[in-house]
Specification:
The protein has seven domains: about 15-95, Phosphorylase Kinase, domain 1 (2-Layer Sandwich), CATH 3.30.200; about 100-315, Transferase(Phosphotransferase), domain 1; about 340-375, no CATH class; about 450-510, Trypsin Inhibitor V, Chain A, CATH 3.30.10; about 520-580, Trypsin Inhibitor V, Chain A; about 590-655, Trypsin Inhibitor V, Chain A; about 655-715, Trypsin Inhibitor V, Chain A (2-Layer Sandwich). With about 725 residues, it is of the alpha+beta class. It is about 35% helix and about 20% strand. It is elongated. It contains 22 helices and 34 strands. Strand 12 (about 355) and strand 13 (about 360-365) form a beta hairpin.
Length: about 725
């Protein structure tokens, strides 16, 4: 619990409705307060976002959508969202107030739990997830800090405000979740679904059964890589004797491939309850006695909410609590799992245990003890205690009969030894043997392999140097593990597990994490691909587009990648730039002017620039273009690409026209007639041309080219 005495918001009323009473927790995104809803007169949990988030309109819009989606979910095992608002000074969420503690507090105080206790806790968690998944919501941050337990024993999942609706998911690869519980697909940036919540719940089940997370390391990236690459360890490796079905359940929930996990919370809930039905009472309660005894020895008076205060100070997810109540452990299993399939066995087991006032319970192992237990059970019935059911009474009577038969076969007297001196020698030898054992144990724990030693600092050293330092400290059992690291060069040590400075027995194994260098990504082949597709391919491969240049290419269409640098197949760090050469298409060629040129000259001019001359099948007459030369070219301007065709129309020369004989006619009539035929008329006057009569004509008769000149001499 944070000290909120100096918090200026304490005593304020938010939005004219929520009176802030005290500060509960402070995290990276928000501060949580215990507040009173003045309109409904009830306590609520008020989460006020930090100012930098409240000013981010995109974030506020997304949070509002997620809050609306989560508020639509109403379930006994999900913390209810009551309200959210955005004002000029505050952006906030209003949650149901849970007066209690977190599952993290239970794990910290109890350590490893029995299968029954673990399943009792997991059942309501998965039931809440099943309701959320059915409503189209995923949590993405399932962990003990987000599981709240009221003082009445209700188990609820909190912080659904950070989830997003499955139907609106963009799968942009945003990394959600805490690294200790993150699903591999979220770590790879592939987005997540209901199966991601199942994976996190499986990691949490492992922690409930063993008391710690499966993957632990100093650096978060090492934990993430373990979730990506390493198989999930079996809980029985930590807790020998654990029922094999619990190993199988953890493995099933934490498969690396999401397709191999339960599809959603509803499917998992059915499997959980089926497994619980099949387990025997002994399997369900494996380790429970030791846990209860340890819990009894450790129960000492502590400040109110001591564990809860520590959890609130360290966890990002806030815990709703009040300083009026001390932190307590989860109620015994039957209170959380009301329909216990082995309830009758518990009654028999209870009947087979005697409780003396002020003493620990005594197991009914011998016949006399069991007899007295049954008798005491009957007596307590008469004294007002609840009666056993008929089935329970019959089972107790059967157990009593077996115990009496066993007691009848047990000798009641022990015969003394006939050789007291031999007995004394045996006692001396036993004492000597115990002394040797004690001395050996002392040497083992003080100087030998069982002695405590400090793990040395070996970061940034070569593997050989690191192993030598560890051996010098007495750690002969070492192993190496490759991890990717952006700062430490490949082949050098990143860290150790346990971390440097930790105290450890010398016979324990120290794992040396060796850098494999940064994560490298292969360059994909993008030549021959359109530029837009090439850009997306590089982005999906965790690379970036570098310099883009353009070049003409006669064979490749515009916008297609011609070259890439670096080449495909090479590996580089994330966001390495790949330079591209993109085609501009074939190079344009200006069409040369060939009108009036001879056919040979025109064809040579077009061939020289990469164009092809095509001769039109028909020729035309031209007064100005001699026969065999180009009259028209199509096209005669603009640009073409290499191999483009230009059609040439050749001249047949001028048209031949019959020349009329105009001698003796007046010059005006003769001129008009010749011009009408397309000739040019030249008049030469003889003796002044007084009479205006054509006396001579050149040419006179025959044919002449159209447009040629006819000379008239006039007298």
């Amino acid at each position: 619990m944070h000290d909120g005495s100096t918090d200026p918001r304490v005593g304020q009323t938010i939005d004219g409705r929520y009176l802030v009473l005290s500060q509960v927790a402070h995290g990276g995104m928000s501060t949580v307060y215990l507040a009173k809803d003045l309109r409904l007169h009830r306590n609520i949990a008020l989460k006020i976002l930090h100012p930098h988030l409240g000013a981010d309109q995109a974030f506020i819009a997304r949070l509002s959508r997620e809050a609306q989606s989560a508020a639509s979910l109403s379930h006994p095992h999900v913390v209810q969202i009551h309200d959210h608002g955005v004002g000029p000074e505050h952006a906030y969420l209003v949650f149901e107030f849970i007066d209690g503690y977190t599952l993290r507090d239970v794990i910290n105080k109890q350590g490893a739990l029995s299968p029954r206790q673990a399943l009792d806790l997991l059942d309501p968690i998965v039931e809440g997830l099943a309701a959320a998944h059915s409503a189209g919501l995923i949590h993405r941050d399932v962990k003990p800090e987000n599981v709240l337990i009221s003082h009445q024993g209700w188990v609820k999942i909190g912080d659904f405000g950070l989830s997003r609706a499955v139907t609106n998911s963009t799968n942009t690869g945003t990394l959600f979740g805490t690294v200790g519980y993150i699903a591999p697909e979220l770590a790879r940036g592939e987005g997540g679904d209901a199966r991601s919540d199942i994976y996190s719940a499986g990691v949490m089940l492992y922690e409930l059964l063993t008391g710690h997370q499966p993957f632990r390391a100093d650096m978060p990236v090492a934990v993430v890589m373990s979730h990506l690459q390493e198989p999930m360890p079996a809980p029985s490796a930590e807790i020998p004797g654990l029922p094999p079905v619990m190993d199988e359940l953890v493995r099933y929930m934490t498969e690396k491939d999401p397709d191999h996990r339960p599809a959603n919370g509803a499917v998992l809930l059915e499997d959980l309850r089926h497994i619980r039905q099949d387990l025997t009472p002994a399997e369900l309660d494996f380790g429970a006695a030791a846990t209860r005894q340890d819990s009894t020895r450790q129960e000492q008076p502590q400040p109110a909410d001591a564990h809860l205060t520590e959890a609130l100070g360290q966890a990002d997810t806030t815990v709703l609590a009040t300083p009026r109540f001390p932190t307590s452990v989860l109620p015994r299993s039957p209170q959380l799992y009301t329909e216990d399939p082995h309830l009758e066995q518990y009654a028999v087991a209870a009947a087979a245990t005697t409780y003396d006032a002020g003493q620990a319970p005594t197991a009914a192992l011998g016949g006399h003890a069991l007899t007295s237990t049954v008798e005491e059970s009957s007596a307590t019935t008469e004294s007002g205690q609840p009666n056993l059911s008929k089935r329970q009474a019959a089972a107790a009577a059967k157990t009593q009969a077996k115990a009496k038969a066993k007691a009848a076969a047990t000798p009641q007297k022990t015969l003394g030894s006939r050789h007291p001196r031999r007995r004394a020698v045996l006692w001396v030898l036993l004492v000597l043997l115990l002394g040797v054992i004690a001395a050996g144990a002392g040497w083992f724990l003080a100087l030998g392999p069982g002695a405590l030693a400090t793990v040395p600092e070996v970061g940034n050293k070569s593997v050989e140097q690191a192993l030598n330092l560890l051996h010098a400290e007495g750690f002969d059992l070492t192993s190496t593990s490759a991890v990717h690291d952006e700062k430490v060069a490949a082949g050098f040590v990143v860290a150790t597990d346990p971390t440097a400075g930790s105290s450890l027995r010398k016979f324990n194994t120290v794992t040396v994490h060796v850098s494999a260098g940064p994560v490298l990504y292969p360059v994909p082949k993008i030549t021959g691909v359109a530029q837009d597709s090439a850009t997306k391919t590089l982005t999906d491969a965790h690379l970036a587009v570098g310099t883009v240049t353009e070049a003409f290419d006669e064979k490749v269409a515009a916008g297609v990648v011609l070259q890439q640098d670096p080449a495909a197949g090479k590996e580089f760090r994330a966001n390495t730039k790949v330079n591209l050469v993109v085609s501009k298409g074939p190079k344009p060629i200006p069409v040369p002017a060939v009108t009036g040129k001879t056919q040979a000259d025109a064809e040579a001019a077009l061939t020289a620039v990469g164009l092809v001359a095509v001769i039109a099948p028909e020729q035309v007459n031209s007064r100005t273009i001699p026969a065999g030369s180009v009259v028209t070219a199509s096209p005669d301007s603009g640009t073409l690409t290499a191999g483009g065709k230009v059609t040439l129309t050749l001249s047949k020369g001028p048209k031949m026209v019959s020349v009329p004989d105009l001698v003796g006619k007046q010059v005006g009539v003769a001129t008009s007639e010749l011009e009408a035929l397309g000739f040019t008329v030249k008049v030469e006057n003889l003796l002044g041309g007084f009479f205006g009569t054509v006396r001579f004509q050149d040419p006179q008769g025959g044919e002449a080219p159209e447009g040629s000149t006819v000379t008239l001499r006039v007298i």
